[in-house]
Amino acid sequence: MYRIRLEFPTHKQYSTSALVQDAHTHSACTQLLLRNIHTVQLDECTILFESARDQSYAVLALSGSSSYTVRVLDDKS
Questions:
Q1: Residue ranges in the chain modelled with pLDDT below 50
Q2: What is the pLDDT of residue 14?
Q3: What pLDDT, on the 0 to 100 scale, is given for residue 76?
Q4: Which residues, at least 6 apart from 2, have a Cβ–Cβ distance to it below 8 Å?
Q5: Quick one: pLDDT at residue 12?
Q6: Which long-range contacts (CB under 8 A, 24 or more apart) does 27-35 make?
Q7: Per the confidence metrics, is the pTM higher than 0.85?
Q8: Alpha-carbon gap, residue 28 to 42, rounded angstroms
Q9: In order of start, what are the domains of the chain with their CATH numbers?
């Protein structure tokens, strides 16, 4: 399984709600689809890919966001 997780920052009294995380993740999936990378959104912050190549490209494409950090998940996560 080729997956990434978008990790959202937590501040002293504020954490990003699941609804906002879901919206950002859906937006990321749409951006990737426009680049011909097909994805499946597994939950509010996890994206599944068809290949390691797609996963690597997604990490590069999404890593510039200031709203979240991209983390690659291995099969055990």
A1: none
A2: 81
A3: 61
A4: 48, 49, 50, 51, 52, 54, 55
A5: 74
A6: 28/58, 28/62, 28/65, 31/61, 31/62, 32/58, 32/61, 32/62, 35/61
A7: yes
A8: 13
A9: 2-73 (3.30.70.260)
